Amino acid sequence: MLRPSFAALLTVILSTSVANAWFRLPCTLPMVQERIDPIVNPNQVPSQHVHTVHGGINFFSNTTYDTLRQSSCTNCLVRQDLSNYWFPKLYFNDRAKGTFEAVPNGGLLVYYQNRGTNDVANGGKGLKVSSPRFRMISGDPSARDKQYARGQGSQAELRERAIEWACLGPKSVYSFDLNPKQGFPTTNCPYGLNARIHMPACWDGVNLDSADHKSHVAHLSGLDNGSCPSTHPVGLIRLFYEVTWDVDAFASRWKESDGWPFVYATGDPTGHSWHGDFLNGWDVDVLQRAIDTCNSTPDQLNGIVDACPIFNIASQADAGKCKKTKSSVTETVDGVLTKLPGCNPLQRGPGAATLYTDANCPK
Ligand SMILES: *[C@@H]1O[C@H](CO)[C@@H](O)[C@H](O)[C@H]1NC(C)=O
Ligand SMILES: *[C@@H]1O[C@H](CO)[C@@H](O)[C@H](O)[C@H]1NC(C)=O
User: Where do the coiled-coil regions begin and end (predicted)?
Assistant: First the structure.
């Protein structure tokens, strides 16, 4: 469990960190954590690495929009949104003992933002909700470095820039812009390790998915503002994920001189494999009506989700009860482990990591 002081601080930091959010969707402590990925590894049990999952409870390897819409609950606060949001789980690598320990995250905050020249506030035609069966990912589980000069502006560079980390401390130290090659921080983060991911906000308007789960969408030219490329002209409401892990709980167990000890479930000690997945489960008419109408009062413009009367909002306590108690995979992913679940040996890069399956795991 996160210590109460940590959770309280988190709320303050998060609520001031991104201006002009259209609304912020809080998701409570994870709905389930397991090796399942209905986008990248559909119908495969288990998938490659452990994910931390939020949203509708019907999360399985074979989940579709239609089965997700039948979810009995979601651990995020808007009841009409049964989407799934997931990302790799973080572990502490105790190098002296050779073990891995799960690091708790304090939930997920999903910002739904009205950005770019398609937004009516910027003179555009208005932002759209993607179609019901839409899905996408941002980030790359095999990445261990960045390839492009920051700000170069190609879609490939924007994809790299879309993943960020911040080391939170008493002065709200945001370290992610300091060094374009840097992934994870190098020091303890007293208020937590914060990771963010920008999802693409431009759509080709036709395909609900693509082979790499990315090509049917594109980033805005300025990542969080600007225009859509002509190949992907439809402006979507923009999703931005923010997660904070309580790395400070492990502060007494490592020294800076030994190097940063936290790794993603992908076997990544660099941070560059950070990625996020979105499987749409919205009542799309509700979201479109909210986008079109909940944009006038001060609270609506400040991103307060309760200020949009179209939404049916659950309490934190009620949403927090929505947890998948029986995982689709019989393996332990929490507590102290002797190896990362699946076949995820630590791969430091800088070249792309090999994504092993259980079947081709090197001995
Ligand atoms: C999807 O997977 C779940 C869990 O493994 C299973 O209970 C369900 O029957 C599957 N549904 C279909 C349509 O195959
Ligand atoms: C985005 O750019 C437009 C101009 O194209 C500007 O009016 C607007 O304030 C910008 N929004 C943000 C959040 O920077």
Answer: none
